Amino acid sequence: MDAIVFYGFSALTLLAALVMVTQRSPTYSAFAFIVVLCSLSVVYGMLGSPFIAVLQIVVYAGAIMVLFLFVIMLLNVREEARSARDGWVLKGVAIALVAAFALQMASVLMRARTQFPRDFEATAARVAEVLFSLRFLYVFEATSILILAALVGAVVLAKKDL
Amino acid sequence: MTPLLAELVIAVAKILVIIGVLLGLFSGMTYLERRFLAFMQFRLGPNRTGPWGLFQPIADGIKLFFKEEYVPEAANRWAFLAAPILSISTALMAIAVIPYGGPLTLPSWGFMPEWLAGRQVSLQIADLDIGLLYIFAISSLGVYGIVLAGWSSNNKYSLIGGLRSSAQMFSYELSLGLSWVGVIMLAGSFKIQTIVESQMGGFWNWNVGPQFVAFMVYFVAATAEVSRIPFDLPEGEAELVAGFHTEYSSMKFALIQMSEYVNMITVAVLATNMFLGGWDSGLPFLPSQGLYGVVWVGMKAFAILFVFIWLRGTLPRFRYDQLMDVGWKVLIPLAVLNILGTSAWIAFGSK
Predict the structure, then answer these.
(1) Which of B143, B178, B184 is best to mutate for the A interface (most A CBs within 10 A)?
(2) Which ranges constitute the DSSP H helices of chain B?
(3) What is the pLDDT of residues B115-159, one digit of tens each?
(4) Is the Cβ pair B144, A34 closer than 8 Å?
(5) How far apart are CA B199 and CA B272, in angstroms?
């Protein structure tokens, strides 16, 4: 049962990711990405982290992608323009990157545990304990300040006279 | 009967009952809303079909069912068809974690099979550990139905309606989520059951007292989330015809309408559970266990739904910049102050 759900949603994730990359219409790409995020969240849920699964949907699918779609719809981007520089250089770089990625994946898969995690529950409380433990606390808070700084920077860039 | 099979049968039964009741409530709500609105505006409202016009929802259903299914020529066909489905399925998914009453012990009558008699059933489809976050996640997905409807219709009114609604939902979702934090901190759990149980024993224990600011923020944000007047700019008929569902007809329109009402009911029942003590009767000498709890939840939720209708009969629509101002400059600071106050109280005051 678990295996069926896992492989089903993994396949859906990969398929939607493929659609997202190959699709020329930005709106379709955005929706394919939403499908990727949602099916990934199911996988997270199966791996015993319902909290992360829900956060994935709330933050990425529910907030960030809404903004993306908002911008796409506001600018009314119909189709991605084909750049004239789609030349051999870019294709070569792409092939090299794909090869490197495939090598990495292979090396990870060779060493990966193929066992399904059992009796592992990353509940909200557990995640919070780790996140607010001394080990991660400073990093976590520093990240939040970084995000705040980026936010303020974006506002300042967008609005010249405040 | 194996335990797993019994669980499954009960779960399916609960899903069918709750969805059936909700869809019945949806048609009842359309009737009540029209009658109440008519009463507030010195009109009569629908009163011709059946006694007091009670069969009006059925007549409306039949009418919508037999109307022509129409997909505009220039619309994006698949997205156009998917949008109402997305709306209604997210609306129905969100109700899965809401409790409608305390645990119910089934009576053991003679004709009942042995696995059913005397069994304790929780009046909730799934009691998730992260129930509130689940609702938050699902309702944040609900906006896609509207956005997709607006975009795929290929109509400028629809597109503007979809744009407005995505901006509005996004802005008010923040204050909606923040208004929950105080309640979550007081109960120490995301689990809705636990939140309700922490308010048991009388109306002075309900969260609406200590979390009054949060309740107000929640109510305003929820009104905006379900796009009701005074926040119904996504479908402001004066400027946008009908907003994102301008091009929808027949059953697709009915589905969109249904999802709006289901969302409204969800929001009301959630407010009941989080702020108004859920199935608690409010006075210690009144029973609140089992099916009595369902009655209390129903009455409280109905009171909130009535306020929604009342607002619709009373208030004019906001201007768009006012809408954004209220969301970002009033509700969010209020909600954050409430969180700070509540955490200070939990840290220093409660001991």
Answers:
(1) B143
(2) 3-40, 56-66, 77-94, 131-152, 156-187, 192-197, 212-225, 237-240, 250-275, 291-314, 320-325, 332-344
(3) 776 677 777 777 777 888 888 888 888 888 888 888 888 788 888
(4) yes
(5) 11
Residues ≥6 apart with Cβ < 8 Å to B181 = B214, B335, B339, B342
Dihedral pair phi/psi, residue A29, rounded to 5°: -60, -45
Q: Are A10 and A43 spatial neighbours (Cβ–Cβ below 8 Å)?
A: yes
User: Could you report the per-residue pLDDT of B197-219, keeping only the tens digit for each?
Assistant: 888 877 777 888 788 888 999 99
Enter the tokens of residue B332: 């969010």
Residues of chain B contacting A, Cβ within 8 Å? 79, 128-130, 133-134, 136-138, 140-141, 143-144, 147-148, 150-151, 159, 162-163, 166-167, 169-170, 173, 190
Residue ranges per structural domain of chain A = 2-80+88-114+121-131, 132-162
pLDDT at A81: 63
The pTM is what?
0.84
Q: What is the DSSP annotation of B124-143?
A: SS---TTHHHHHHHHHHHHH
ipTM: 0.74
Q: What fold, for A2-80+88-114+121-131? A: Four Helix Bundle (Hemerythrin (Met), subunit A) (1.20.120)
Contacts of B95 (CB under 8 A, 6+ apart): B18, B19, B22, B125, B262, B265, B266, B269
Asked if residue B168 lies in contact with residue B232, where contact means CB atoms within 8 angstroms, the answer is: no
pLDDT digits (tens, 9 = 90+) for A46-87: 877 888 888 888 888 888 888 888 788 777 766 666 665 667
Residues of A in contact with B140 (CB under 8 A): 57-58, 61-63, 66
> Using CA atoms, how far apart are residues B64 and A108, in angstroms rounded to an integer?
56
Which is it for the CA torsion A22, A27, A31, A37, positive or negative? positive
- Using a CB-CB cut-off of 8 Å, the residues of chain B touching A37 are none
Give CA separation, B245 vs A47, B152, B190, in Å: 39, 10, 34
